[in-house]
Amino acid sequence: MSRVVADEPGYVLHSAHYKETSVILSLFTLNHGVVQLIAKGARRPKSPLKSTLQIFRPLLVNWVGSGDLKTLIGAETASSFYLNALPSSGLAYCSGLYINELLTRLLPRGGPSEEIFSAYVTAISELFSTAQVEPALRRFEMAFLRELGALPDFEYDLDTGAAIEPSRFYRMHHHAGFVRADEQSRGALPGKHIIDCCTLDFNDAGSRRSAKIIARTLIDNQLQGRALNSREMIRKLMEYKHG
Amino acid sequence: MSFSPSIVNLVNSLRVLPGVGQKSAQRMALHLLERDRSGALALANSLVMAMESVKRCQSCRTFSDTDICPLCENSRRDSRKLCVVETPSDLFAVESVGQYDGKFFVLMGHLSPIEGIGPDEIGIDQLMQRVKEGEVEEVILATNPTVEGEATAHFIADLLGSSSILVTRLAHGIPIGGELGYTDGGTLAHAFQGRKPL
Ligand SMILES: [Zn+2]
């Protein structure tokens, strides 16, 4: 018997045209992880689903089916979403697309997670309401990596077991933690930045820079050689903006 | 019922057309064979000609027989205005209104990193080059009112941010003949943001 799921909170990560009038959605849900859904007739000119099934929009979704591809039977916008305007900067959009790509590439292995869902909701609303996208991105990346079980030990030196000290320098070791390093050596990070990363404190510009390097290294390790296209997009945006 | 190999081949070929499944393809094939062989030959010819000679305009990226399309060549069009659209069919839609007298740039899509469509695929460098050449004074961003279309518009607007070029976006709002009560919230929110003094 086919199972019906009703009023499931979710966000469209990506939608692809399917045949003349339908779309296949990749939906990030609270209780079912990333689900593939077919939305029949969603591209017909008068279909109300057309405007509902947009990315970054909180939805309540109904579907039926037991296989890999479920059938959408209804979707509506959740809550007071309309009060929040869409962002007005290319960087905010690109950052949101980056998070969607991250989930698409890495989440299926992680399965459903309330923590990641809640981090996503927070990240999207932060990205769309602030000019500072980096802290929001780093907080999401760290929460996501934690749920994937991919966070290193931020508190203790892997070699000695001693607490990481703010004034000493360290380097990442096997993506598992940090060991002491020479200040001048390649990849050396100040202990303070590592501690800030642990406490998600990104007020300091140096800590933001280091957190970006740490997150990138860990994510690359998870991607195992697969590319993240949205990174290239953000790089291009920066390149044009700064000369 | 089994068809001869040529007919099977024709039916399969017809299925490349959008919206054409097995049944309609069979109907089309039999219709052409029974009633309109000369029409079918003309169609075959046009297909070969179009597929072999239509390329992308080097200036605006739309489909064209020539290196530079007639619209780009037309000196009566205002080169100071550049309208950026996602697809050639969007260009046709704007043209059919007959009100716009500027030129176009066709992205051939929108940014979609998950599908591997980034700035290079939608010709961003070419667009920036075109703008840098100096004639353009206004860039009209007419990408679709989807979130991806918005993202693409804002991406381009950000790239042009440091220049002196006027960047405008098509207004979106309530359709003519529409009713507020039946308008979806997103459209209504956009219409509110874009309200104008009377
Ligand atoms: Zn042209």
Biggest pleated-sheet summary of chain A:
5 strands, mixed, barrel
* Shape estimate of chain A: elongated
Indicate the structural class of chain B: alpha/beta
Major sheet of chain A: order of its strands? 1-2-3-5-4
Order of helices and strands of chain A: EEEHEEHHHEEEHHH
Morphology call of chain B: globular
Beta-strand portion of chain A reads 15-25%
Question: How large, in whole angstroms, is the Cα Rg of chain A?
Answer: 20 Å
> How much helical structure, as a percent, in the residues of chain A?
25-40%
- The overall pLDDT average of chain A reads 91
**Low-confidence spans of chain B: pLDDT under 50, at least 5 residues?**
none
Which two chains touch over the largest interface?
Answer: A-B, 42 and 33 residues
**H/I helix tally of chain A:** 7
Which fold does the CATH topology of the largest domain in chain A refer to?
de novo design (two linked rop proteins)
Explained architecture:
The complex is a heterodimer of chains A (243) and B (198). By secondary structure, chain A is α+β, with helices and mostly antiparallel strands. Chain A folds into 2 domains: 74 residues, Beta Barrel (OB fold (Dihydrolipoamide Acetyltransferase, E2P)); 153 residues, Recombination protein O, C-terminal domain (de novo design (two linked rop proteins)), CATH 1.20.1440. Helices cover 39% and strands 23% of the residues of chain A. The mean pLDDT of chain A is 91. Chain B is α/β, with parallel strands linked by helices and 198 residues long. Chain B is 44% helix and 13% strand. In chain B, the strands form 2 sheets. A 4-stranded parallel sheet of chain B has the order 4-3-5-6. In chain B, strands 1-2 form a two-stranded antiparallel sheet. In chain B, strand 5, helix 7 and strand 6 form a beta-alpha-beta unit. Chain B is globular and about 65 Å long. Zinc ion (ZN) binds next to helix 4 of chain B.
